[in-house]
Amino acid sequence: MMALGIWPGHRLFEYERKLAQSELAAFGATAIKPVPRGVQFEHPAPRTLLGRLTYFSEIGVEGTVWPVAQHEVEARHLQSRSIRSRQATRFGVHGFHEYKGKFNPQLARALINAVDPDAVVLGDPFAGSGTALIEALRLGLDAHGRDRSPIAVFVSAAKLRAHQAGDPRRLAVELTELAERVGASLKHGQDTGSDASVPTWDATTHRYLSEWFTPPAFAGLREALSDHPPAEESPAAHLSLLALSSILRSVSLQEPQDLRVRRRPAGFVPPSLRDAYIETIDKFIASLAELEPWTASQVATSKLGNANDHDLFGDSKGRRLIVTSPPYATALPYIDTDRLSIMALGLATPARTRELEASLTGSREWTMRAARIWKQAMLDNAHSLPSEVTGLLGQIEAANQANGAGFRRAAVPALLYRYFVAMRDDFTSWHGQLRRGERAVVVIGRNRTGPSGEQVTIETPSLLAACAEQIGFTLGDVISLETWPRYGMHAANAVNAEDAVVLEK
Fold it and tell me: Fewer CB atoms inside 10 A, N or C side of the chain?
């Protein structure tokens, strides 16, 4: 049967148009041909595609047009917020928390469809805020995630619980009732200078946080947290704490535009903590209104752990697929960025946050002793990394010596060596857990190092592919993904392109 997939009204990247065609092919469409309004194709039952496709707004057959479910979800989200036509990426629970480095939900969904539409279990070993996990659930898969960052696990677990709430409207009522009490505590504490204590804080946490809030704001935060129910008690309690986490950067002395914990200029007066919190809760309520009652029996987990854990898929049975977006070769400071939330929520102490930052894949934090060890390991290629990797590191090392690089830049080659060793270890674990014919998709970008005008591009996608092939994976498609340009203080070393590297066992 001849059908037409109709493009939405908003702009699509070229890779999204190509992925749309790949989805069609994966679901058995043939004679796929781009036409001015969309894509023409043949399929025996086009209506069966309406619940799976990502980028089309409608499917037309012989004058009859049916809406695509994903487009309806996005359209309702935009309409409820009076937003002009564009791709909605914060529909449902995806808008919870401004976690840095979020996966695009449409990309995660499309990759699941295009790479292995028969998969029934998804694993994300770098789960972050849980975007791929949520999209897997929406497509009917079990979903299992791991992350080293406790705030990432906290955020993703809150999203999963909210998404799987049997009755999201009842959850919204419970959250509204709890938020009234928490908001009152925030206001009372900020207005009166409450001396409440938080049971989950030790003395070092209290002391550290007191230096990053004005006394009134700190008093409000303490009073709200002093008797707040723990996240484990209910999804509503979890979401309320997530809302508190979401406002901490804006009400603290941390410079909100900087990913590191750096101070604002003197003279900052925080806004009303209650107003900021209630505004966030209102957004959560609006998001919950977009969810349908949950009756499915899928399994979803988000756990604190390593990307090379050997039980990524838990007890789930059936065909497996990994879709993940690991940190770049020199990663964002994920722990530092959300350090205040991690401590305020009782997820780690100040000393533990420093250890966590250093332990993340791609971290630029290490001791002098670790730097010496990894520098020597790089020079000896003690871990037998592929020649593609060692060749690039030698090029960067030579450029650093020629240009008299400072301490930070001089450390880059050894940091990169450690990164690729860690990623190859992860690939080894994934290879052991996947079965023959199953796949892993790694979405990763490039970055640069070196002085302006003489920068070397770190081709992370191809280098990771070489590491994966070294331990037995077969390289499949490499899907080029355009990204929006980076601006501001973090744009200097950015490259506005990523790749989705498909690996098959």
Answer: N
